[in-house]
Specification:
Layout: E1 9-11, E2 14-16, H1 44-59, H2 63-76, H3 93-108, E3 123-127, H4 130-140, E4 144-148, H5 163-168, E5 174-177, H6 181-193, E6 198-201, E7 210-211, E8 224-228, H7 236-253, H8 258-282, E9 290-293, H9 299-304, E10 308-311, H10 321-334, E11 338-341, H11 348-357, E12 360-363, H12 371-386
Parallel strand pairs: 3-4, 3-5, 5-6, 9-10, 9-11, 11-12
Antiparallel strand pairs: 1-2, 7-8
Amino acid sequence: MLKEFPFLFEKGGVTAAGPLSISTRFPIKPKRAPRAFPYVKAPSDVKGKMVKKLSILRQKVDKEASMCYLANMIRQSGIDVPIRLNSRIRKGSLFSLLLIFGFIFLVLEPAYVKPTGFCGQRLKVFVSILPQACFVEHIGKDCLDVSVMVRPGHSPATYEPTPRQMTELSKARLYFGIGVPFEETWIKRIANANPNMKIIDTRHGVSLLPMKGHPYHGKKRHYDQTQMDPHVWLSLKATKIQAQNIHKALVAEDPDNRLYYTDNLETFLHNLDRLDTRISNILKDLKTRKIIVFHPAWGYFCHDYNLEQIPIELEGKRPSAKTIAHLVEEAKSEGIKVIFVQQQFTTRSAQVVANAIGGKVVQLDPLARDYLKNMKKIADTLAGAMK
């Protein structure tokens, strides 16, 4: 593509031709730039003359030095360009080399810039819950069209997809599951709605925890190893694993944007690590490590930050009067004044406990779409209520 430029390099009666090699056999050395004048305090007219002289010296920088520098840069770029240099540079030679070097820079530059997605028709994907949409959008960004199955304000335990959502599934390429209860009932029908759609369980590689009840709920429900806690998204560490599973599926489905997805994944993982450190610092000096919650959604969160959740209800069943009495007694002994609830469940039993301990009910949302902001808000709310 690049033609040979017949520049001759003559000095002291010796002519060298052929590919450029900056070595001892070429006795020509680029002239050094003039040393800067030492700083002296002088009248303004003297300063003006000195500045003018410096300007003239800059304009007289040896053209041979510039040619050697540019030619050497071209050679280092890996493109074999046979160049012959001459101390009597023909008019326009330097300009020609600058054009060549500029062209090479434009060709090589994409290897060093941040990858961008080449998104034609956006990839249609489905997720089960809102926080997953945040995960997927951080990795795929504008290359994806993300739809959420469980709509805001609904519970993933009892949700039923609408006919319109089932129709939309026929356009999807990927479905990212997370193991919430409604999937157990609907996942086969979701798969049948679009046999070409790949279903990915994003929990792959996550160490699942058992759904822990409270001793006052009865022996059979306490530490039931057969029922695993589905709230894996409330652990930043588990979310990192889920993000990697999402990335793997996107790259397999859209390999042309592999670098783009990988770069976005690395940024997302870095943000998760930073947030994990911040939350650890926020929660390290609490008066008590126990929290009373209405629904036991916070097992993974508590596991990560050395907390213990005490749930009021379990498996959707209201607590007995005896259970409430024990919860009130423990809350008083631990100095707990706040009961945490979420909008997807009734708060009547939580209010009973709060009234009995002279405390209050505070709402947390484990299903907010802005995942990073919401996790920080949860930590701040817990710290503010428990200090």
